Amino acid sequence: MGSLSEKMGHLPLPLLFFLLCSRSEAGEIIGGTECKPHSRPYMAHLEIVIAQDKVVHCGGFLIRRNFVLTAAHCAGRSITVTLGAHNIMEKEDTWQKLEVIKQFPHPKYDNTLILHDIMLLKLNEKANLTLAVGTLPLPPQFNSVPPGRVCRAAGWGITEVGESGSDTLQEVKLRLMDTKACRHFHSFDPNLQLCVGNPQKRKSVFKGDSGALFCVLEWPRALSPMDSGMQSPLLSSPGSPITGPGSIRS
Q: Please, what are the domains in the chain?
């Protein structure tokens, strides 16, 4: 069967499409709405110490009771994972705070090209499964998603350009677009990336949503986490077609 980390390296391209944005500062969902509290019990908030007095934030999701899947660029000196949170600034009885004891970035992760930007985090103990904390197992197989399919992204990233991140978990619906819509981005590779969004609507993921989940709207059967590395369209013009290197290849 192989270990969990071994399986991660052999997942087909669209299976893992994360919202991987710059980790330089916290960010959020543009043009989205607040999630119903605890409607996404698999979501994990990551507080990452990357240097002395320097803390950044990412998203992730619980795939096993002691493993969180996130973006490789969300690595740091230490990581604290909060499960069962909705408003990350208001502690609830549902919260479970766990420490990461081992970080497993993809062996081919390229920080310059943002390829294979995916990472497993092993927690110091198993999470207690509750109504507010649950796992999202990876689907056993994946079929390509056609253009036009509406997907949903969630995270605690920024909701407006120039503002700080959202305290509450946000979500936004985005549409998979034909790859031609992203051809004008010089770094776009349809063999490694998906084109997502709508240039006519101001909706997007943004800084701080790194490592969070992007999924097909057929929960739970076809809920499909996939891998990406969000490019400059997100950072410069929310609502533009979103590109991201889906760098996990079989």
A: 17-217 (2.40.10.10)
